[in-house]
Amino acid sequence: MAFQKGQSGNPGGRAKVTLPDGRTLTDLARTHTAKAVEALVGVLDNDEASDAAKVSAATALLDRGWGRPKQDLGIEMKSDEAAASLLEQARRRAAQAG
User: Fold this and answer.
1) Pick from 26-30, 34-38, 79-83, 88-92: least confident
2) What's the rounded mean pLDDT across residues 26-40?
3) CA distance 85 to 76
4) Measured over all CA atoms, what is the biggest interatomic distance in the chain, rounded to whole angstroms?
5) What Å distances lie between residue 43 and 49, 55, 67, CA to CA?
6) Which of 59, 66, 15, 14 is nearest to 40 (CA)?
7) Under DSSP, is residue 3 helix (H, G, I), strand (E, B) or coil?
8) Is residue 69 classed exposed, middle or buried when 0-12, 13-18 and 19+ CB atoms within 10 A define those classes?
9) d(Cα 42, Cα 82) in Å, to the nearest integer?
10) 46 Cβ partners below 8 Å, 6+ apart?
11) Are 56 and 32 in contact (CB under 8 A)?
12) What pTM did the predictor assign?
């Protein structure tokens, strides 16, 4: 079966897994949030834990508490004119490709 141009082959995305009791896996995981955070803090506080384990726990806590850091794309925008120029370049490339 061929996909039509401009139409997603999976418009609904990945199907949600529903457990027999009606909960999703996400719902189930969220019920353990407090215990998971306590476990991560426990790793941070454990003097016998490796440095790698502590960094991993700290990263997980910070990512969930504050969000992951924005990725630097290596593009410095100095003005709206620069942004418009980049947008125009992207449009030209898209027109050539499609």
Assistant:
1) 79-83
2) 91
3) 13
4) 59
5) 6, 9, 20
6) 59
7) coil
8) exposed
9) 48
10) 53, 54
11) no
12) 0.52
Name the one residue in this structure whose structure tokens are 């960094």. 55
* Single-letter residue type at 24: T
Q: What is the pLDDT of residues 40-88, one digit of tens each?
A: 999 999 999 999 999 999 999 988 888 888 777 776 666 777 778 888 8
User: Could you give the dihedral angle defined by the CA atoms of residues 64, 54, 26 and 72, in that order, rounded to the nearest 10 degrees?
Assistant: 40
Cβ count within 10 A of residue 40: 19
The model's pLDDT over 2-22, given as tens digits with 9 standing for 90+, comes to 767 777 777 777 777 888 999
Structure tokens given for 1: 């079966």
